[in-house]
Amino acid sequence: MKPTVVIYGSSTGTCQSIAQTxxxxxxxxxxxxxxxxxxxxxxxxxxxxxxSTWGAGDMQDDWYExxxxxxx
Length: 72
Hints:
Blueprint: E1 4-9, H1 14-26, E2 29-32, H2 38-43, E3 46-51, E4 53-54, E5 58-59, H3 61-65
Parallel strand pairs: 1-2, 1-3
Antiparallel strand pairs: 4-5
């Protein structure tokens, strides 16, 4: 398998638990989006992103606060 990482944002721990389960099944690392760096992105061909949604589909806060904040 090409280098893969599971990246998640989680306020309540549910998405974190699911991300860690998926990563474990794939034999790869799961990391919190708040610790994401350009080096992690460059080192992996596949990025699996996990986030919960809030309200009317708003993304989980960590995604907006990360170095790679997402503009919607």
